[in-house]
Write a structure and sequence with these properties.
Strand content: 25-35%
Distance between the termini: 44 Å
CATH class of the largest domain: Alpha Beta
Strand order of the largest sheet: 7-6-5-8-9-13-12
CATH superfamily of the largest domain: Vaccinia Virus protein VP39
CATH architecture of the largest domain: 3-Layer(aba) Sandwich
Number of helices: 7
Number of domains: 2
Mean pLDDT: 94
Helix content: 25-40%
CATH topology of the largest domain: Rossmann fold
Order of helices and strands: HEEEEHEHEEEHEEHEHEHE
């Protein structure tokens, strides 16, 4: 079913996608393997993590008004056109494989000068990268001093330490151990310290705590998801 038709069919007022302000009687299910119910916006196709970032940027930063030079690694579709059309942003997208980005770039060897960007987004990428320390160093390198990065990852906060085993290489075993065939680890609580180790000052922002319980449900956020907000 085409997206506009689906959005029309689900139109209502119980749940709202804050990215475009449209409301629905329910969201769509989404998930790799096991489906999460009522999480995928019928209009922007945003998920919980996307809506959390949007609300944080909108309410807590000057992202939508101040002049910024932005690098977006593996840009999410729900943000791409909106960010590209913001007049205050000098917005560059990059990825090694995606056909929709501005620049083909390997996160382990980014083709940008030191101190190039005010903001870097790199969400749900590092769990695919074996040498994530090198990737994080590259993200740090291209940010200006004082610049901000947001680097979300799938994270199990019941784990004190990140679980990884590079001897696990088959798709079936990676799915079993890491939740997805192309993931190489499950990050634990120590993820934030991995970011700090390369020089970032990291704020572990539990942004849903700033919102009322009815709003968390209305926006279909994951309660207590932590945003890693990194400052160089």
């Amino acid at each position: 079913m085409a997206r506009p038709i689906l959005a029309f069919w689900l139109k209502g007022n119980k749940y709202t996608d804050p990215i475009d302000g449209k409301s629905f009687k329910k969201f769509l299910p989404y998930g790799y393997g096991k489906q999460r119910e009522n999480v995928l916006s019928p209009s922007t196709l945003s998920l919980e993590r996307h809506r959390l970032i949007w609300l944080y940027l909108k309410n807590e930063t000057d992202f939508f008004t101040a002049k910024k030079k932005v690098l977006h690694m593996a840009p999410e579709q729900c943000f791409l056109d909106i960010f590209k059309n913001l007049k205050n942003l000098n917005y560059t997208t990059a990825d090694l494989y995606s056909p929709i980005v501005d620049i083909k770039a390997d996160i382990l060897d980014l083709p940008f000068k030191d101190n190039s960007f005010d903001i870097v987004f790199c969400n749900h990428v590092l769990e695919h990268i074996e040498d994530d320390a090198k990737a994080i160093k590259e993200l740090h390198r291209v940010l200006i001093p004082g610049g901000m990065g947001i680097f979300q990852v799938p994270q199990d906060l019941s784990l004190e330490k990140t679980y990884e085993d590079f001897n696990i290489t088959s798709k079936e075993e990676r799915k079993k151990h890491f939740g997805q065939y192309d993931h190489v680890r499950v990050y634990g609580k120590d993820y934030f310290d991995r970011l700090r180790k390369v020089g970032f000052t990291v704020s572990e922002v539990n942004y849903s705590k700033k919102l009322s319980a009815p709003l968390v449900d209305k926006y279909r956020l994951t309660k207590n998801e932590i945003l890693p907000v990194c400052i160089k």
